[in-house]
Amino acid sequence: MAPPSGLGDKVFKWFTLAMALAVVALVFLVGWQLARGSSLAIRRFGFHFLATSTWDPVAEQFGALPFIYGTAISSLIALIISVPLSIATAVYLTELAPLWIRQPIVSLIEMLAAIPSVILGLWGIFVMIPWLRDHPFPFLKKIFGWTPFFSGPIYGVSMLAGGIIIAVMILPIITSVSREILRSVPNLQREAAYALGATRWEVTRIAVLSYAKKGLFGAVILGLGRALGETMAVTMVIGNTPQIRASLFAPGYTLASVIANEFTEATTDVYLQALFEIGLVLFGITILANLLAQLLLKTMGSTIKSGAVQ
Amino acid sequence: MKNSHFWRKTKSALASAASFVCALLVIAPLALVFLHLLRSGASAVNWSFFTELPKPVGVAGGGMVNAIAGSFELLGLAALVGVPVGVFGGVYLAEYGTVRGNWLLRFVADVLNGVPSIIWGVVVYGLVVLRFKSFSAYAGGLALGFIMIPLIMRTTEEVLLLVPAGYREASLALGISRWKTIVHIVMKTALKGIVTAILLALARVAGETAPLLFTAFGNRFWNHDLSEPIAALPLQIFSYAISPYDDWHRQAWAGALVLVVTIFFVNILVRFLTRERVARVL
């Protein structure tokens, strides 16, 4: 009979530890590869890379500002659309909905999360863009056309369309993480408020939402992290033009989509290096967003799985 | 009066109604996308779609058999990377790790989960494609495998923790060594959950396009050598979707329908097969 702490045990323990440490190794691998791949570009352009807006592969002038701007604005639009919808849905699913309807809706949201980005992009090109171009965009232009955000020609492919498709992509994750957060609110909170004679909505507002504020903020930041890195669907509808325009009807470009589009076309070393550096910037900001989100979620004191919905 | 009981009840009902409308809006895109997929895709899915290679521009017909096969090959390669690392990493978290160490490892795994999939493409390009000077199935499989690692690790841990401590104690009390207890008792008990975790991770990466763009690259023909570029269903959908030809658009819809139905099928199947207890943690 094998003794309780034989060689086999030691080997197995160290083997599984090595496998678990792979996640740490992967983070360093990504950082190292991206830094190595862009070292020349970093040395050559320095901070100008982040602050200039000329993207001219022929003249070998590379500035990432239009992509940073595009990523920021499209993610912002996505959050403005999806945060109220997702949190309201999460509230509905945990507090207000009749019990029998909850599971079916949760399952449908999980199915939405399972639709690949490229297929949403396909739908975006052939269904969403033509519809947006013909109906909501002219309407928005008529009402808000006097502001710089909704002026100029309407092409269909645009920053706004990119933001909308990202919103669809991040709806499921914000909803399901918010739902987990709300479910982790102790029932005593609710009972105390009910005992004071509060209505259902008052219980939700006073006892549940204020208690879960921090976690819900974490859910939103997690959604932001996904929005920043969303690639295929955005690439297919945002228009892929490196420019900075106030109008949301104008085409834009994001960090992720410039990598997707131009990586295989990068003919010179500097061009490829610049794209690696874009990757480094994207990795940096998504890691920051995810670090913040996980810290907020994990200090909520609940067992939230960010992997619940991908 | 503003604070009357009636007004408060009305406000509560209004809030319920408004949040119900929000819930409908959240699931509306699913219905819109899926209905359109059925309408545009169903007419283009036929026998030749599953049996023929893509036809050159201007020639009608053809299929995506190479892309379907390529996707399965890539998933197989991805599983070779993602499954052992993910499953045994999960074993460490569930069976050995210290509280603090585990907190950190979970934290890193969750952060890793948020890394955009296109970044994995760039990393594997630098790691494999530049080194061997060729796009390849290996590179594509490695990129997908990296994405699977944190997914499988976290879910494996959850399903292993569902195994009652009594099982472990009973086995150890019989003098069976710890690693044999873990492999033969704990992992065997949780086998269904582990398989579910793997299937869900595969279904997730099956639709990934961004990490394959410059690793697997795509291919319009059969590939018999894994060190050469290989076709994949999502890649083919992408390149057809942005092409200017109507016939290719139809093929893209067909490919999308096949891909989505497969992914939905796997998702529904695993939820149907796993018991309620396991289903809750996944």
Write the layout of secondary structure elements.
The complex is a heterodimer of chains A (310) and B (282).
Chain A: H1 7-37, H2 39-45, H3 48-51, E1 55-56, E2 61-62, H4 65-96, H5 99-114, H6 117-134, H7 136-144, H8 159-183, H9 187-195, H10 200-229, H11 232-237, H12 255-262, H13 269-298
Chain B: H1 5-42, H2 47-51, H3 65-96, H4 99-113, H5 117-132, H6 137-161, H7 165-173, H8 178-189, H9 191-206, H10 233-241, H11 246-273, H12 276-281
Summarize the structure.
The complex is a heterodimer of chains A (310) and B (282). Chain A is an all-alpha fold. Chain A has 13 helices and two strands.
Provide an overview of this structure:
The complex is a heterodimer of chains A (310) and B (282). Chain A has 310 residues and is mainly α. Chain A has one domain: MetI-like (MetI-like fold). Chain A is 73% helix and 1% strand. A two-stranded antiparallel sheet of chain A has the order 1-2. In chain A, strand 1 (55-56) and strand 2 form a beta hairpin. In chain A, helix 9 (187-195) runs antiparallel to helix 10 (200-229). Chain A is globular and about 70 Å long. Chain B is mainly alpha-helical and 282 residues long. Chain B has a single domain, classed as MetI-like (MetI-like fold). Helices cover 75% and strands 0% of the residues of chain B. Chain B is built from twelve helices and no strands. Chain B has helices spanning 5-42, 47-51, 65-96, 99-113, 117-132, 137-161, 165-173, 178-189, 191-206, 233-241, 246-273, 276-281. Chain B is globular and about 70 Å long. In chain B, 53% of the residues are buried. The mean pLDDT of chain B is 92. At the A-B interface, helix 1, helix 4, helix 5, helix 6 and helix 8 of A face helix 1, helix 3, helix 4, helix 5 and helix 6 of B.
